[in-house]
Amino acid sequence: MRYIKSTLPTNEGIVKEIKFHWSHGFISWLYLIFLGMFLIGVYLFLRSLIERYSTERAITEHRIIIKTGLIRRSTEEIRLDRIEEINLNQSILGRLIGTGELLITGTGGSELHMKWLSDPIKVQKAINAYRMVDLGS
Description:
Blueprint: H1 2-7, E1 14-17, H2 22-35, H3 39-54, E2 56-60, E3 63-68, E4 74-79, E5 83-89, H4 92-97, E6 99-106, E7 111-118, H5 120-136
Antiparallel strand pairs: 1-2, 2-3, 3-4, 5-6, 6-7
């Protein structure tokens, strides 16, 4: 959370860090084990590892922020009061192991897509809870 913490104003704090599910790392290792003899396995493993360790996702008191990239940085933000929909997508396996994804749509057609979430229902509830607080102020 170094990047997100360093860019927040003094009157805004992080209320929830959004973590990757353990299955993201597990799939990375499967790429390496089963496809490692081919360069594609090493590539997919390294790509997943870099994605995991160069991505920051957080809910602050006023917005949702996603930062991606190791060398090239990309950030996406949606203010909590500008969120129109939060769509949850979980497969059967995802429900069993507690992973899924959220598609958050804001006004003006902006979207945030978060994959490999650890406990996506808890993340959705946190967004809705802070969204209601932000709307009330």
